[in-house]
Task: inverse folding
């Protein structure tokens, strides 16, 4: 068994080997320098790697403004489509709730005629059915708002290609119609348009979005001073509404579709164009 080296500090009167001590100290300094050099090399290597990650490959340039705008538009379209798809899934369950509530109501009505249950039980079922149907109506409305927003986002290229609209200008393409009316539009003026529609067509104007909606907020659009009307601009009602808006100087953009060959998303956007909220 090896004996431990218990040699430590020199005893009193013992001579110190200065050469050995100096050599040990030099060796210690050398090892310290080697360690510091190694740490410095590692640090430099890590910095170089970080710089390479930050630098783009040769020939790769920053995206142009047009590319950024195009990407933002596609992001809006994808977000709106995903949002609509989630609403469609939700609608399946809500339709099931409506059917269940309707079946229960019919059963309770039959039981009421037999004096097995009270009228209150039937009234409770009627309220449950109304609540379930109200949820379906809200979801369908939000799906319509999504279609309208998709139509507006897809028409952004068409709007960008149009020359700047002077006051009073009326411009039309295969996808949309734009009128830059001189009137100062505020959402409170919507009642005038509604009165015109009701007096001519004897029914309430089908407003699909009035001011800021949950869908516009969800997808990051400012719609606070605009109103969407769910009528096709090429229909008799659409033509009449656009004629009235032009006569009143009210600005609007009419969208013929969200998808070419389909009426999905067709509506008249009354007011100024919606803008992204940033």
Result:
């Amino acid at each position: 068994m090896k004996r431990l080296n218990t040699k430590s500090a020199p005893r009193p009167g013992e001579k110190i080997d200065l050469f050995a001590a100096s050599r040990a100290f030099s060796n210690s300094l050398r090892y310290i320098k080697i360690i510091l050099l190694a740490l410095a090399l590692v640090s430099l290597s890590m910095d170089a790697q970080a710089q390479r990650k930050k630098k783009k490959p040769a020939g790769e340039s920053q995206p142009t403004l047009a590319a950024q705008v195009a990407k933002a538009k596609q992001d809006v379209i994808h977000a709106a489509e995903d949002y609509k798809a989630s609403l469609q899934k939700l609608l399946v369950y809500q339709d099931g709730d409506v059917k269940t509530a309707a079946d229960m109501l019919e059963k309770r009505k039959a039981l009421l005629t037999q004096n097995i249950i009270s009228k209150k039980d039937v009234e409770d079922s009627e309220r449950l059915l109304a609540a379930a149907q109200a949820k379906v109506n809200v979801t369908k409305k939000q799906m319509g708002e999504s279609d309208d927003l998709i139509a507006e986002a897809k028409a952004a290229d068409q709007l960008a290609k149009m020359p700047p609209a002077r006051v009073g200008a009326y411009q039309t393409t295969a996808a949309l119609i734009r009128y830059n009316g001189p009137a100062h539009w505020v959402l409170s003026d919507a009642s005038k348009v509604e009165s015109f529609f009701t007096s001519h067509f004897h029914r309430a104007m089908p407003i699909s979005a009035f001011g800021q909606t949950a869908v516009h907020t969800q997808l990051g659009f400012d719609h606070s001073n605009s109103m969407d009307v769910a009528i096709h601009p090429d229909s008799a009602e659409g033509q009449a509404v656009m004629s009235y808006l032009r006569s009143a100087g009210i600005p609007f953009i009419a969208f013929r579709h969200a998808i070419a060959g389909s009426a999905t998303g067709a509506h008249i956007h009354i007011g100024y164009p919606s803008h992204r909220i940033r």
